[in-house]
Amino acid sequence: MYRKLRSQYQLLLMSVPCMVLLILFTYVPLWGWIMAFQDYSLSKGIAGSPFSGFSHFADLFRDDRFYLVLRNTLAMSGLSLATDFVGAIALALLLNEVRVRLFKRTVQTITYIPHFVSWVVMANIVLGSLSPDGGIVNDVLMKLGIIREPILFMSKGSWFWAIHTIAGFWKELGWSTIIYLAVLAGLNHDLYEAAEVDGAGRFQKMWHISIPGLMPTAALLLILATGNLINTGYESQFLLGNGLNIDYSQVLDLYALDYSFSIGDYSYGVAISVFKSAVSILLVVSVNMAARRFGGFKAF
Amino acid sequence: MRRRYGAADYAFETFNYVFLLLLGCLTLYPFLNLLAISLNDSIDSVRGGIYLWPRAFTLGNYRAIFQADNLVAATLVSLARTLLGTFLSVLFTTMLAYTISRRGFLFRKGFNLILILSMYVNGGLIPYYLLIKNLHLTNSFWVYIIPGLIGAFNVIIIRSYFEQLPEGLAESARIDGASDFAVLFRILVPLSAPVLATITLFVSVGHWNSWFDNYLFNSKQHLSTLQYELMKILLKSVQQVSTDAARSGKVDRAVANTLTPQSIRASMTILVTVPILFVYPFMQRYFIKGITVGALKE
Question: What distance in Å separates the CA atoms of residue B18 and residue B13, rounded to the nearest whole number?
Fold first, then answer.
């Protein structure tokens, strides 16, 4: 053992610092979960703060705002999951029918752009397009005579989910097709030729070969995405949200952040994070079990 | 082979090309619009009606941005974190991936498990924030670099790639007395251009686009990044929108001799987007391969 260790000192030199960093920044924060069971104060730290049992969780489940924020989190991630899933498959099928290679490549390259820009840039685009003075959306609607007065899109709380979903859809649509296009390109060409010999048209080939060919991958990706349903990002909501739509734009992470920093109640903020992680782990584990049964796939 | 083209086929073909063309335009339009606004005279833009082409062409907006000290400094910080952060991250990620791709490595299984589990655990924002604070990484440049040095998913993608290279390559070099460092950097790395290019692209775009760590950890102006500066301008004009809403009418926002927020936003957005546009199309061949290999294998 010792001799083996010595002979592998180079491998250790390469890996141990990396592992230390990885553990430090992903596992050590778990230690902070203790705060959820304390009345934590910054000055006393984890070691000195008194324990309070499950009181913060009891508060959490009595907190109306918490349910509101949980609703927003699940609604927004559910909406983007569904639109992205359907949109990516549809676009991949359409792109797959394009015979002019240059056209296909160009459309692909263009639709990848939004994936690579930051949410700050995205928010700029969204707020600019929806702006009441000079935003393209209001301009077009007014020119078409659909509305007389510009609409203040970002101040209508109940519209936030739709706006957020469309923005995310626009950003990730092209990128999400990559994997489906790869699967379509890998489908057996003999199948298509045999179908043609049998007299199948374009739509029949699409329906009987392309779509069934995509299904295993699609099912797998859908299952995995379901596991991450509660793990939405918060950047987009942070940037697009404002005081007027906060009842629809605030998500769990932002609520936790808000509680901890503006009210100074760190324990409550951590309790929210713990709840979120517990649900997420539960979802991921059950989803992986389902995936294993489904397609012999395993993540661990 | 005989191709059958019916009327439905032609209709579909036409619809398909038109639809995809529209989709492409819809994706490009916001960027072209911002470009036009950024090249249009700031005061003139307030009148609205700028779509694809500037009405009163000027480079004044860009000149003004480059004269603002805070923005020049922020550009340098963004460049520094992107270059240094990407280099170090790819270097460390590759080394870790190499070790856990070696069959004989003592801790291969253990490290692998820790790595994979790390993708599923998440301590949450507040514990993470307190950790960074306790490590005295707040208000420091290093908070941009160190915490994100190892990305578990990237390690796994590179590992998968290393594992599917012929094993004899590394073995024979080892027998000839080459060190692990030599095997990795002289033999494996040159063979792994597609996957390393992919990871480099992802990591560098991530660095360039990142602003939340800046917002959360670094309040000092000299550590401000370009994205964060853009975000601050954005928030300022959002407040403006709310006051617009309160007055429910147009407000004269253009003060003589100053740039309007709209123009600053447009030119800064173009400024932070252009570097990405210059890089990713050339990597497209690689990342499509990289992403599908990684995703389909795992």
Answer: 9
Q: Does A168 touch chain B (CB under 8 A)?
A: no
Model pLDDT, residue B208: 96
Beta partners for residue B57, in sequence order: B40
Closest CA–CA distance from residue A60 to any residue of chain B (Å): 16
β-partners of residue B40 are B57
- Domain layout of chain A by residue ranges: 52-295
Summarised one tens digit per residue, pLDDT across range A7-41 is 889 999 999 999 999 999 999 999 999 999 998 88
Q: Which residues of A touch B125 (CB under 8 A)?
A: 253, 256-257, 269, 273
Centroid of chain to Cα A183? 22
Whether residue B150 and residue A22 make contact (CB cut-off 8 A), yes or no, is yes
**pLDDT tens readout for residues B210-247:** 999 999 999 999 999 999 999 988 887 666 554 554 44
| DSSP tally for chain A: helices H, then strands E | 16, 0
Fold of A52-295: MetI-like fold (1.10.3720)
Q: Tell me, what's the ipTM?
A: 0.88
Structure tokens at B193: 């251009």
Q: Which residues in chain A touch residue B19, judged by CB atoms under 8 angstroms apart? A: 94
Domain range list for chain B? 60-297
Topology adopted by domain B60-297? MetI-like fold (1.10.3720)
Q: Choose, out of A9, A15, A97, the residue to mutate when testing the contact with B (most B CBs < 10 Å).
A: A15
- Yes or no, beta carbons of B130 and A32 under 8 Å apart: yes
A282 pLDDT exceeds 60?
yes
Between positions 129 and 148 of A, the ones with CB within 8 A of B are: 129, 131-134, 136, 139
Give the residue-averaged pLDDT of B14-36: 94
Chain A interface test: which of B100, B126, B247 (most A C-beta within 10 Å): B126
Whether residue A214 contacts residue A89, with contact meaning beta carbons closer than 8 Å, is answered with: yes
Q: How far is B218 from chain A (nearest CA, A)?
A: 15
Torsion angle of the four alpha carbons B165, B170, B171, B172, in this order, in degrees rounded to the nearest 10: 120
In chain B, % of residues over pLDDT 90: 49
| Of A117-126, A132-141, A290-299, minimum mean pLDDT range | A290-299
Q: B162-186: b or e for each residue (b if 16 or more CB lie within 10 Å)?
A: beeeeeeebeebbeeeeebeebbee
Q: How many CB atoms lie within 10 A of CB B216?
A: 16
Q: Residue A253 and residue A256: Cα distance in Å, rounded?
A: 5
**B-chain residues within 8 Å CB-CB of A25?**
128, 131, 147-148
Shortest CA gap B228–chain A (Å): 8
Chain A: give the shortest CA distance to residue B62, in Å: 17
